């Protein structure tokens, strides 16, 4: 199965370098998506351009792909699903939940010179980063790409309620499936509250399992792709 991989904030396609070969070994066709403004040198990219990049990958897939989105990009995956509900086989959300219509995409941290740089590890202390050793922390921070302001502050626009028909799998990273179910039931992730088919799988990791648990993540995604 073709598996489209979308990294979260500050990440480019190389974030999946340890996951993609493991997926290939399982017989799948992984395709990391390079997002405008996050790996192509386009520092003035917009949210619409990032959505367009994901849609181009969906549209050129030979079959309905498995769409995998990480962290803040869970909203990006949801936007693509809203735009192509008939083309996405299933949406996997790693460590995040989609924002609602009208909300900013990811206006979380200070902007500098038209972009949102990685804020350091302070905001992520605790369960988010507990499984990152010092070498990984330094590598991730060194490779982090400032997210263009027009991406981070772009406004989410959703229009096709057929998105709620697309099966969703929530990969629970620094939180448990029980917590995720409670949040959704309480209306803290309204888009998933309305989704018709939501499953939960656990992975023993912090917020970045593509770096800390790549083989386990690949096996999990392979099982989802195989319908297991």
Task: Give me some keywords for this one.
about 230 residues; alpha/beta; Rossmann fold; six-stranded parallel beta sheet; about 35% helix; AB_hydrolase_fold; AB_hydrolase_1; Alpha/beta hydrolase; hydrolase activity
What is the gist of this entry?
Residues 3-219 form the AB hydrolase-1 domain. 33% of the residues lie in helices and 14% in strands. It has nine helices and eight strands.
- Alpha carbon gap, first and last residue: 13 Å
How big a fraction of the residues is strand?
Answer: 5-15%
Count of alpha/pi helices: 9
Give the uncertain stretches in residue-range form: none
Mean pLDDT: 97
Shape: globular
Task: Tally the structural domains.
Answer: 1
CATH topology label = Rossmann fold
CATH superfamily: Alpha/Beta hydrolase fold, catalytic domain
User: What level of helicity do the residues show?
Assistant: 25-40%
CATH C-level category: Alpha Beta
CATH architecture: 3-Layer(aba) Sandwich
Strand element count: 8
Computed CA radius of gyration, to the nearest angstrom: 16 Å
Given helix and strand content, the structural type is alpha/beta
Descriptive notes:
This is Alpha/beta hydrolase. Pfam families: Abhydrolase_6 (PF12697). 33% of the residues lie in helices and 14% in strands. The chain has 228 residues and is an alpha/beta fold. It has a single domain (2-225), classed as Rossmann fold (3-Layer(aba) Sandwich), CATH 3.40.50. It has helices spanning 20-25, 47-60, 73-83, 134-143, 149-152, 177-185, 190-194, 209-212, 214-225; strands at residues 2-6, 29-32, 66-70, 90-94, 115-116, 147-148, 168-172, 198-202. The protein is built from nine helices and eight strands.
């Amino acid at each position: 199965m073709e598996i489209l991989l979308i990294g979260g904030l500050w990440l480019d396609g190389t974030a999946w370098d340890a996951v993609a070969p493991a997926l290939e070994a399982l017989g799948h066709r992984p395709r990391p998506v390079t997002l405008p403004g996050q790996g192509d040198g386009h520092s003035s990219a917009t949210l619409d351009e990032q959505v367009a990049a994901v849609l181009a990958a969906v549209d050129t897939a030979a079959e309905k792909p498995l769409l995998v989105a990480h962290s803040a990009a869970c909203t990006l995956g949801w936007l693509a699903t809203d735009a192509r509900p008939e083309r996405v086989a299933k949406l996997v959300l790693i460590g995040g939940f989609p924002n609602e219509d009208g909300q900013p995409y990811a206006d979380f941290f200070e902007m500098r010179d038209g972009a949102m740089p990685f804020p350091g590890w302070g905001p992520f202390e605790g369960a988010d980063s507990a499984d990152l050793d010092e070498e990984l922390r330094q590598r991730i921070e060194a490779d982090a790409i400032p997210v263009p302001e027009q991406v981070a502050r772009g406004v989410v626009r959703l229009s096709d309620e057929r998105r709620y028909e697309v099966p969703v799998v929530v990969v629970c990273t620094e939180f448990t499936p029980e917590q995720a179910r409670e949040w959704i039931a309480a209306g803290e992730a309204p888009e998933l509250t309305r989704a018709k088919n939501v499953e939960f799988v656990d992975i023993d990791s912090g917020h970045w399992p593509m770096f800390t648990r790549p083989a386990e993540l690949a096996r999990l995604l392979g099982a989802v792709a195989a319908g297991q």
